[in-house]
């Protein structure tokens, strides 16, 4: 034994080949925390002193290689002074440089996921052998930073500037076939042969078949470009990455700037360039927001795991209704391995639902994510039904019929008579009270809400709504089913609109009020899209459906009459009246035509001006609102309503509230969520801003607790 620690150990075989095995005690994965980094430094120092070592294999005793840095620990690095952070980064760089300078060949045996710092450890080795099902990557730009332990230095030299920029700026996890094609790894083998293949590589070096020193020199040297070549390469990359990243996410462009400088430098100087640029990007508000978002995501997943712990798995599911939502639920369930019965009262609806599922499976096959055989097997696990004949074996039923309280009550009561006493009923309602719907049931304790978002296969969030009589067991089983479907469930308490729609409709109310004052909806859309929303409010309402928005607006007005009612006819009311329902019938605020790929493309419709004219107040004079006014009038109601949901216990934590908005309605990730946005702005500044608009009504008036927190300089995410 050369070294024996809590995170790793180093042994040496009789043939002189040493093995460094990563195995962090007390954790299911390997990650770079301070313990692991310190032990890695000590282990490398021990290897330097060990006589007769002929090679080193770095492997993992866990199913993953290294998932990256421990963000919960390293987030504190970002709070250090520039000089202190630079010193921390240099210490880590020294460890990786020491590995790359060991006087014998080194091979990373990548058995599983190797991300971030784990990938940078692999890059510090001379060779890399990767398991077929493993994934590697440098996802740091997704946290608003870029690789800081040599990734921007070593990867371009290994796979070329174009590929390295795509890997680093995109932040994607790469499959083994792509990694081999790009030259990031030297061999791809079955997982059980990873270590053996690594030993073969070392033996080739020992036998003189591979010149490891020549390879090192090549990868350490500055890359050679003519000035024109370098300009063309990086200008091209900047254009592509800049268009994808957008102005709100500076890390990808910062990574390009760093690589542009360091590729022409010696490796020592290049590492200093990386450190200098990393310190700058780590101190940006966007990095703080995206790191906070990552931590919130971890918190939400952990909370869901706590809810579902001990729940019996759903082995057979059913969905009522084969419409867009029901078909989406059926596809998602089947694609993740849970067979599902799809029931409807019309055979043509079932045919449509199966056709949609077949199309989605077909796309998975086209992208190489599924074989034809697995696709057909999954499709066959969706069983169409016109009756309840096979429902006696169902563990959980998702009701996804029309959004009408009386229809839902009738369908739920009927279904309850055809399922086992211990089966769970869940409604996919987006706004209707779960407590109210449960009044039609004999076993209300087995009933809760399970609100999916459209399109189901893309939207990660599922709201699990606890009614007054919902049991812990029903909630646990529903959460477990959502997890099995690959979704992120958030448990919320019952109220009109629950969390996401309750917060979304004050946002829409801010939009409607500006429209009544004569504002241009196209300008509002453009301003909010530039602010970071994936689509502006008019476009979003068209996608949601004008009819859906109209009915939901009534539910919200009934539930919160003090702030969600409105006088007279607004734009949504008018469009509903003339049956402009949005994308679903190709006319709403915009008109829709199919593009070459068959997707709806929005087009301005001149008729809309005349149609909406009668909804504008006679005194409406706000056609020329400033961008700042538009942003304030849209964001203030949304943020205050999010706070109300936390204060009233509708959602358990600020983390769950923020992630619900990120995952449910596309809240701009660079802002970190509504409550993080308030923390960044400062509650005092927010309340002062809201007071400028308080004449618009209660939606614009902060709560008493918000004002108290502002006076005390409190935040929602305490340090």
TrEMBL record:
Q: Which residues form the 3-hydroxyacyl-CoA dehydrogenase C-terminal domain?
A: 497-592
Catalytic reaction equation(s): a (3S)-3-hydroxyacyl-CoA + NAD(+) = a 3-oxoacyl-CoA + NADH + H(+)
Please give the pathway this protein is involved in. Lipid metabolism; fatty acid beta-oxidation
* UniProt GO BP: fatty acid beta-oxidation
What Gene3D superfamilies does the database record attribute to this sequence? 1.10.1040.50, 2-enoyl-CoA Hydratase, Chain A, domain 1, NAD(P)-binding Rossmann-like Domain
One GO cellular component this record assigns the protein to is: fatty acid beta-oxidation multienzyme complex
The record's keywords, sorted A to Z, are:
Fatty acid metabolism, Isomerase, Lipid degradation, Lipid metabolism, Lyase, Multifunctional enzyme, NAD, Oxidoreductase
Q: Which domain of life is it from?
A: Bacteria
Q: Which residues form the 3-hydroxyacyl-CoA dehydrogenase NAD binding domain?
A: 317-495
Q: Which PROSITE patterns match?
A: 3HCDH, ENOYL_COA_HYDRATASE
InterPro entries tied to this protein: 3-OHacyl-CoA_DH_CS, 3-OHacyl-CoA_DH_NAD-bd, 3HC_DH_C, 6-PGluconate_DH-like_C_sf, ClpP/crotonase-like_dom_sf, Enoyl-CoA_hyd/isom_CS, Enoyl-CoA_hydra/iso, FA_oxidation_alpha_subunit
In terms of Pfam families, this protein maps to: 3HCDH, 3HCDH_N, ECH_1
Q: What is its EC number?
A: 4.2.1.17
Q: For this protein, what is any one GO molecular function term?
A: enoyl-CoA hydratase activity
Q: Which family does it belong to?
A: In the central section; belongs to the 3-hydroxyacyl-CoA dehydrogenase family.
- What this protein is called in its record is enoyl-CoA hydratase
- Organism the protein comes from: Marinomonas mediterranea (strain ATCC 700492 / JCM 21426 / NBRC 103028 / MMB-1)
């Amino acid at each position: 034994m050369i070294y024996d620690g809590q995170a790793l150990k180093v042994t040496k075989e009789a043939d002189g080949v040493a093995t460094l095995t990563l195995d962090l005690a007390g954790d299911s994965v390997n990650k770079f925390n301070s313990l692991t980094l310190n032990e890695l430094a000590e282990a490398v120092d021990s290897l330097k002193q060990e006589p007769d070592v002929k090679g080193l294999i770095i492997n993992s005793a866990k199913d993953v290689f290294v998932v990256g840095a421990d963000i919960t620990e390293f987030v504190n690095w970002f709070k250090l002074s520039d000089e202190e952070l630079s010193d921390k980064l240099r210490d880590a760089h020294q460890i990786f440089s020491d590995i790359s300078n060991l006087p014998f060949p080194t091979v990373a045996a990548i058995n599983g996921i190797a991300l971030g710092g784990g990938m940078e450890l692999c890059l510090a080795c001379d060779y890399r052998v990767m398991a077929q099902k493993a994934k590697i990557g440098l996802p740091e730009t997704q946290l608003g930073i870029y690789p800081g332990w040599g990734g921007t230095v070593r990867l371009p030299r290994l796979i070329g500037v174009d590929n390295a920029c795509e890997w680093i700026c995109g932040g994607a996890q790469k499959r083994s076939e792509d990694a081999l094609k790009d030259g990031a790894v030297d061999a791809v083998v079955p997982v059980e042969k990873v270590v053996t293949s690594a030993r073969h590589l070392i033996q080739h070096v020992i036998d003189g078949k591979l010149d490891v020193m020549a390879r090192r020199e090549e990868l350490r040297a500055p890359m050679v470009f003519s000035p024109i070549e370098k300009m063309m390469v990086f200008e091209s990359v900047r254009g592509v990455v800049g268009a994808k990243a957008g102005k709100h996410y500076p890390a990808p462009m910062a990574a390009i700037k760093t690589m542009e400088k360091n590729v022409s430098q010696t490796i020592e100087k290049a590492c200093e360039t990386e450190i200098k640029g990393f310190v700058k990007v780590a101190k940006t508000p966007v990095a703080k927001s995206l790191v906070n978002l990552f931590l919130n995501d971890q918190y939400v997943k952990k909370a869901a795991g706590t809810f579902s712990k001990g729940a019996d798995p759903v082995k057979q599911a059913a969905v009522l209704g084969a419409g867009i939502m029901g078909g989406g639920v059926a596809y998602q369930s089947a694609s993740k391995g849970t067979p599902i019965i799809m029931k409807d009262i019309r055979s043509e609806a079932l045919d449509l639902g199966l056709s949609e599922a077949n199309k989605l499976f077909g796309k998975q096959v086209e992208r190489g994510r599924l074989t034809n055989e697995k696709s057909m097997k999954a499709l066959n696990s969706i069983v169409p039904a016109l009756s309840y004949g096979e429902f006696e074996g169902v563990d959980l039923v998702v009701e996804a019929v029309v959004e009408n309280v009386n229809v839902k009550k009738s369908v739920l009561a009927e279904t309850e008579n055809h399922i086992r006493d211990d089966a769970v009923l869940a409604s996919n309602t987006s706004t209707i009270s779960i407590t109210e719907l449960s009044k039609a049931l004999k076993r209300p304790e087995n009933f809760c809400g399970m609100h999916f978002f459209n399109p189901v296969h893309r939207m990660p969030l599922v709201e699990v709504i606890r009614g007054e009589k919902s049991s812990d067991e029903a909630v646990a089983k529903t959460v477990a089913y959502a997890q099995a479907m690959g979704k992120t469930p958030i448990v919320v308490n019952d109220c009109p609109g629950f969390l996401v729609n309750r917060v979304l409709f004050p946002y829409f109310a801010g939009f409607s009020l500006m429209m009544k004052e004569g504002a241009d909806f196209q300008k509002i859309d453009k301003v909010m899209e530039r602010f970071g929303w994936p689509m502006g409010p008019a476009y979003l309402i068209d996608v949601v459906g004008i009819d859906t928005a109209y009915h939901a607006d009534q539910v919200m007005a009934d539930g919160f009459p003090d702030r969600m009612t409105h006088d007279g006819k607004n734009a949504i009311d008018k469009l509903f009246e003339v049956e402009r329902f949005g994308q679903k019938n190709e006319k709403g605020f915009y008109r829709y035509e199919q593009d070459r790929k068959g997707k709806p493309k929005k087009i301005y419709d001149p008729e809309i001006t005349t149609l909406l004219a009668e909804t504008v107040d006679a005194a409406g004079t706000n056609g020329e609102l400033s961008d700042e006014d538009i942003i304030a009038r849209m964001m203030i109601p949304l943020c205050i309503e999010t706070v109300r949901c936390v204060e009233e216990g509708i959602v358990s934590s600020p983390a769950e509230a923020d992630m619900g908005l990120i995952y449910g309605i596309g809240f701009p990730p660079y802002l970190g969520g509504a409550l993080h946005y308030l923390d960044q702005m400062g509650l005092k500044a927010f309340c002062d801003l809201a007071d400028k608009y308080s004449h618009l009504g209660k939606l614009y008036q902060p709560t008493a607790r918000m004002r108290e927190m502002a006076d005390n300089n409190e935040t929602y995410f305490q340090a």
